[in-house]
Amino acid sequence: MHPAFSVIFLTTLIGAGQGLFLALITGQSYSALKLLPSQDSTDFYGMGAVIVLLLLIGGLIASFFHLGHPERAWRSAAMWRTSWLSREVIALPTLMGLVFVYGVMQFMGWDTVLFTSAAGANLQLTMIVGIVGALATFALFLCTGMIYACLKFLQEWHSPLTVINYTLLGTASGFILATAFANHNAPELMNFFGIWAIIITLAAFITRAASLMRNSRIKAKSTMQTALGVRHNKIQQKAMGFMGGSVNTRDFFNHASVLMMRNMKWIFIVLAFIIPLITLWYGMSQADTSWLLAAFLIQYVGLIAERWFFFAQANHPQNLYYQTV
Amino acid sequence: MTQLALIIDLNVCVGCHACVTSCKEWNTSGSAGFMTDENPYGKDPTGTFFNRVQTYEIGEFPSTETLHFPKSCLHCEDPPCVPVCPTGASYKRKEDGIVLVDYDKCIGCRYCSWACPYGAREIDEKQKVMKKCTLCVDRIYDEELPESERKPACVLACPTNARLFGDVHDSESEVSSTIREEGGYQLMPEWGTKPANHYLPRRKTRMHIHEDELQRADNPLKKEERGPRAPVDAPTLDDSTSW
Ligand code: SF4
Ligand code: SF4
Fold first, then answer.
1. Å from B31 to nearest chain A CA?
2. Block mean pLDDT (10 aa), chain A, length 325
3. What is the interface pTM, i.e. ipTM, of the complex?
4. pTM given for the model
5. Closest-lying ligand to the alpha carbon of B81?
6. Which is it for strands B4-9 and B198-200: parallel, antiparallel or unpaired?
7. Does B20 sit within 8 Å of A251, measured CB to CB?
């Protein structure tokens, strides 16, 4: 498939936003259980929610560039019963709404303690909104991943690994951002987020490598023989019916050389996993926000490469019909 | 239930592209608006088509044969392109099984074209909506046209009669019996899309002559000789007897 930059930015930006939100909620639930020192609601949770919201809005804006008729985008919530894309269109604004409410509550200090356990753990109002938001975050990861995983003849995508990778990669990027953010606004939490970021990045590395291995062994179900219904081992296209290209030649081929594909794979492995891990570790040991931020940004570039590769690697069966001009 | 469909006979298609041009002509002048063409007379012309004819070579020289292969939306009975559409712009009509796009609802997200394994959907790069074969839904029911012309434009245009149109759910219809009797098949059956359109394979008419058919083993030559005759000068029965 041809990697569309609108979709690449959409998925990477909202992934980072969702991950950061999960990080905030993880931090908050640890402090509710008194496992972590509690943080200032404005400086940390409130500002964190603002960053999450900005990332989600950035993704939303990117997605509009993918549409031919963005002014009709509201229609796309209609078919949630059958379409994962429609479900995503519902899940994204829902999450944005919840993050917004969460942020406002943190800024305004609307944070009644609803319940205190005997051990002194507090259940606060924002925690409830946060947990609902975390559920919406996972729902959104599921929708985003399923948009690709549900297309069964795109065999490279048709696997639970697609959903798992979207979730883990987004979460990893959000947790690295949370580490940098915490170092600046709540230094005591920096190591907590940093260690989680390392664990999640390693987990994402394992699942992404698993999908690379799976995809390298895929045997295409559709062949020239099934595409034309002709039983002969030697079938060659002589003309595709037009000379100037069409949507079929532009949208469904990656237009990348073998060399570029091979390089891109290593580029994303290095930029999304190896360098960020090293930079993150160094930044944590120095407690230096700029290093931590650099880890996030490098990984973000790596994730763009990863997403590019994700699209470019998928081989659509329609390509069988478009081999020769 | 009705399921309208095309049957394409690969045995007689000569690859003349008459169906391609008549399809474009009919559909670009329809109420749904033009079908984009860019650089139609320049370098690298490109545009939206509902129907394409491709050419393949089967086998290796010298024993090759040419296959002309018209390709358009197959109006699948279980169309993967329909449930993925977020707006409901893509739908399959209950009454006749035609898969259509509502151009006023389509947001041009291209997701349905990803979900069609045949590459039958093409986004219109100017109008920014998804387009595909409609089986000429705006002419097959048009009562202003004489009955014989209420068929898709491609079917009417085909000079070799390689395209048949009809209801594949009616077992008695011409298309159904043709599929049954001429070995009609579906494309990429592995995805379970159940295309309504069928293709008829290339069928070669060969004469098989065996050695023993040249020599009639059971037929002694003498049987075919002339029967015995009396010499011309010998008296006939009439000469020697009186009645
Ligand atoms: S051929 Fe493609 S566009 Fe047509 S109904 Fe089947 S899946 Fe949908
Ligand atoms: S391009 Fe149009 S018809 Fe296709 S899935 Fe998107 S909204 Fe539906």
1. 20
2. 95 98 95 85 92 97 95 94 97 97 92 79 88 98 97 96 98 97 93 96 98 96 96 95 92 92 95 97 94 97 97 96 91
3. 0.92
4. 0.90
5. 1
6. parallel
7. no
